[in-house]
Amino acid sequence: MKKNKITLLLIGLGFIFSTATGQTIRSKVVDKKTNQPIPYATIQIGENEGVVTNEEGSFNITLDDIQSKKIDSIYISSMGYATVGVSVQSITDSIIYIEPKAIELKSVFISNKNLDIDDIIDNVDDNMEDNYRSDLSKKRLFFRETNTNFIKKMDLEFKKSTIEEIDEKLIDSISKVIPKNSVFYAEALCDFYGNEDKQKLRVIKGARLYDKNNNGSIEGIFKKMEKIFKDNVKPNSYIKFRSGLFSQKVQVDSILKNNQDAKDIADGIENPKENLFFKSRKMNLKNLFNQTFYQSDTKLNVIKNSGRYEFERVDYTILDDVGVYVIKFTPKRRGDFKGTLYVNTEDFAIIRIDYQNVKRLRSFNLLGLSFQENGYSGTTIFKKGSDGKYDVKFIEKVTENKFGVDRPLSIIEKNKYVKGRNKQNQVSLDLDIISYAKNKYEVIVFDAKTITEGEYKSSKENKNVESTYLSKYNPDFWKGYNIIEPNTAIKQFKTIDEEIEE
């Protein structure tokens, strides 16, 4: 009997340890006084590693990561709050309450207290080159992108066609099957190498989350169009796309090839060239890092063009026991943004910036083509390294754009090798389309370190990396990895097929 009890105990312990392996701890950071979630709080794991809470105050970490570092506690810090140490064993699926901390005016505050706002901004500008890392680095990061699209108007008016199968009925069916609302999520764990001037990317793991049902009927239309195209277009032809004064020639073979490449990428099939998932991750990460306020070509020119803004020191606060100026900025006539700067009182580094545009940033309307850049907002948080240089720790950025097309379109087949008329076939339409796109980007950098030119050159990209398609949110997909905790919308996302099955 005793032996059996010992055996059962060992089995039970084995079960506990086996389930702990790869276990993800999910928790939420909440203000103890207001009971409100605290977004963008830092969860410190070890000396230079950690995660950041999402906009709902939630975060996740993996037990494997903590146990490998022999850590028994994590530390939560946020602007204006006391840093709290929490035992790892007590945070599984729980809420962590933290309290605002009363500011103690240390000598650093007293010594800088008499600086006026112009002095502070001048010091920020003068120290910017020394404060932020500009050399080659390697960043281990997690990147999430959310694309939401809404088509407000979709009018395709049939004019004429020399191809019998392409008629008004087909054009109407195309207009009807194009989804008016769609959402797409992409996630990737990456190593990002380089600096402002050159970059390389290696994707460790990636996922795409969207509803293929939105593309199903469209795919049928494209297959039908492709068959019509192959049956009616002659070998060695080229297609001229003409819209008003503009025209563009495209070889038929390249159209068919691009169509197949796009289908392969959507289906997750490896492409011999760099695939769309890889290319988009690299391009967007480059843009995100190169649009931080201290970069040379940034839109967020609050410091580089400080004369366009009014600054007001509104408060002091603390972060990790370091004094911070809280500075509001608003635009003068030529400024584009409003927001808040959090400036370290010791080295005058901006350690966090919250921003939002106050007017349309760009607008283009010419010959029936229109574009408006209506929204540009976000938060960027920086972390100081052991060498005194600051790196990006966290980025959340949201852009909102409007697109419009109101003009004729002619698709003309031409073939100089066929006797008789050079023009073989023509399809003419009138387009009137208005669409809106909202893109949200989230990046958390787990580790950043300087690398040499040789290390950069030896780093390898995996341009053909395959991403995994998910029809609904799967909490096990990132099991064993630290990521940005998904918000409620992502967790509740599922395709029409998944809803039917449930």
Radius of gyration: 27 Å
User: What class, by secondary structure content?
Assistant: alpha+beta
Fraction of residues in β-strands: 35-45%
Largest sheet: 14 strands, mixed
Number of helices: 11
The overall pLDDT, averaged over residues, is 81
The stretches of 5 or more residues where confidence is low (pLDDT under 50) are 1-21, 265-272
Number of strands: 21
Apparent shape? globular
Helicity, as a percent range: 10-25%
Q: Whole-Å distance between the termini?
A: 46 Å
Signal peptide: 1-22
Keywords: Signal
Organism: Aquimarina litoralis
Protein name: CarboxypepD_reg-like domain-containing protein
Structure summarized in a few sentences:
The protein is α+β, with helices and mostly antiparallel strands and 502 residues long.
Description:
By secondary structure, the chain is of the alpha+beta class. The protein is 24% helix and 42% strand. The protein has eleven helices and 21 strands. The protein has helices at residues 2-20, 63-68, 107-112, 117-131, 168-177, 213-232, 252-266, 276-290, 453-458, 488-491, 496-501; strands at residues 24-31, 42-45, 49-52, 58-62, 73-77, 84-87, 94-98, 137-161, 181-194, 199-210, 238-243, 246-251, 309-319, 322-331, 337-344, 350-357, 362-366, 369-384, 390-414, 423-450, 468-470. Strands 8, 9, 10, 11, 12, 13, 14, 15, 16, 17, 18, 19, 20 and 21 form a 14-stranded mixed β-sheet that branches. It has a four-stranded antiparallel β-sheet with strand order 3-2-5-6, with no helix packed on it. A three-stranded mixed β-sheet has the order 4-1-7. The two termini are 46 Å apart.
